[in-house]
Design a protein that fits this description.
- The complex is a heterodimer of chains A (about 170) and B (about 170).
- Chain A has about 170 residues and is mostly helical.
- Chain A is built from six helices and no strands.
- The longest helix of chain A has 30 residues.
- Chain B has six helices and two strands; from the N terminus they run ααββαααα.
- In chain B, strands 1-2 form a two-stranded antiparallel sheet.
- In chain B, α1 crosses α2.
- Chain B starts with a helix and ends with a helix.
- In chain B, about 35% of the residues are buried.
- The chains are: A mainly alpha (about 170), B mainly alpha (about 170).
- Chains A and B meet through α3 and α6 of A and α1, α3, α4, α5 and α6 of B.
Chain lengths: ~170, ~170
Amino acid sequence: MDQKPDKLIPALYGGIIMAFVSAIPFLNFLNCFCCAGIMLGGFLGVFFYKNNFTPGTPPFTSGDCMAVGALSGVMGAVFGTLLTFASLLLFGNVMGEFMTEMIRNMELEIPPEAWDAIDESLSAGFTAFSFILQLVSNLILYTIFGLLGGLIGYSIYKPKGVPVPQAPMPPPVQ
Amino acid sequence: MKVSKYYILIMILALTWCLLIIAPAVIPQLYPGGQEASVNSFYRIFSPICHQLDSHSFHLSGQKLAVCARCSCVYFGFLLGGLMLPFVAHYRSKSDIKLWLFASVPMAADVMLDLLGIHEATTLTRILTGSLFGLSASVILVPIAEEAINSFHFSPFTFRRSFSWIKNLIN
């Protein structure tokens, strides 16, 4: 029986998709729906992974899909952070200005101090510290939600005929 | 009713996540006047995954939670659904795809129709659609996650030096 295919390349594809969805202004609005963009990367990583299976390979498991999703998240975090900062440097904080304009149009009662904080965050520049902070934060969040996306992918693409998973029961007390 | 250690681990993680969400609202109550920096750090951590609009968020004693009402209901719904699973241990979804559609279509419709101006999403619709999605997700994902963790032969409660699970992760 053949070995299972490599996980890194499908995870790389999923991570790149995740990075583009998260870094492109307005497209990253998708992440406001409980990180749908990030989970999409993990889900697509599983899609690409399962396409590499042949009839001779053993079927993929939920553990495989969880690993692909988590790896997609790690790669997505690195690429996404790089892309986000590149986008900020090239185009400025397009998304932040759009959100501010949207809040102004909603005519909400926001205290002046809050507006000062919003304006300050919009004018905040790129620093190495903010980059590292963003990278660490993204590594945690993207891995978690990429992992969830991988599990969602398994629930959709699991091989037919696989019995519904039962939780492993603890041994009887003697 | 017996539960596995992997189920307990998953529920601990879900509970921790929910506690982090309510932390920015609870911290000022526990430490009044002076924890603004730590509260803001919680908002910053969750800012990539939620719009955090004040008008769309739950508030505890005047302080909003780390994520909006819909997201809060998804996560708390997931926790609640996961906690109920041992009591409905014999239930398993016959079609995950249909359950995902059942869970996600109302939420997607609520959001899209609100954006198009056809229907106004209210706090009630956010609670209902978010909770439905979270509960359904837990029914599907918790058993799969248990199986996945079990497949790594990873012992979460003991320290293992071999780290063979890392090799299993990549290969």
